Amino acid sequence: MTAGTTVRTRRWLLPLVPPMLLLAACGPVRVAGSANAAAGSPPTSASATASSSQEPAASGAKTPAAAVERWVTQILEERYTEACLSAAPLLPAGQDAETLCKSPEALTSAKSLREAWAKPGVELPPRGKVEVETVPAKGDKVTVPDTAVKLDGRTLRDIELIGATGDTGSFALGFKVQKHAGAWYVTGFDLDA
């Protein structure tokens, strides 16, 4: 593969790389196989004690699928700060969620993520519905792949790849969801390209 081919092959990925900054502000992000891996922040760690007997917190969801559905819907409805703040219970001690989520970088990143999903011919919420298949959790963590998330009847992966050029066979986006105090939260994502 020539250097020109590498640039052309990865050019389609550029719209997805800036959104990683939003989740980096609100939770862990891992990017693999991309020349743009440095754009993501190193994962942060949050110690969380899960308790299935407690009711979910106000910003959390009862299932991983419900957490992803709510978060993706918030991004698509341009409720960026709300989406970012939904992971606040899992931020490491000392990080101010309000400051992180209202930063210009977080806002710009959230808008970029929305652009990756808001493509011509795709109905957005409230007209287009976000649906998430159940993905079994192993303990208190689960990764929900973009192929398990549908918007207006199409998987997010299909939508993300609209207009893509080059080899997209290795592309994969998975939402990291974690349980804390009886509730599920989107805490970041893995992007393999």
Show the helix and strand layout:
Blueprint: H1 3-11, H2 20-26, E1 29-32, H3 64-76, H4 80-85, H5 97-101, H6 104-117, E2 130-132, E3 141-145, E4 149-151, E5 154-155, H7 156-160, E6 172-180, E7 183-192
Parallel strand pairs: 1-7
Antiparallel strand pairs: 2-4, 3-6, 4-5, 6-7
Characterize the structure shown:
- By secondary structure, the chain is of the alpha+beta class.
- Helices cover 31% and strands 19% of the residues.
- The chain is built from 7 helices and 7 strands; from the N terminus they run ααβααααββββαββ.
- It has helices at residues 3-11, 20-26, 64-76, 80-85, 97-101, 104-117, 156-160, and strands at residues 29-32, 130-132, 141-145, 149-151, 154-155, 172-180, 183-192.
- The strands form 2 sheets. A 4-stranded mixed beta sheet has the order 1-7-6-3. A 3-stranded antiparallel beta sheet has the order 2-4-5.
- A hairpin with a 2-residue loop joins strand 6 (172-180) and strand 7.
- Residues 1-55 have low confidence and may be disordered.
What's the alpha carbon Rg, rounded to whole Å?
16 Å
Distance between the termini: 16 Å
**Number of domain units:** 1
Q: Main sheet: which strands, in order across?
A: 1-7-6-3
- The number of helical runs is 7
Helix content bin: 25-40%
Instruction: Please tell me what the overall shape is.
Output: globular
Number of strands: 7
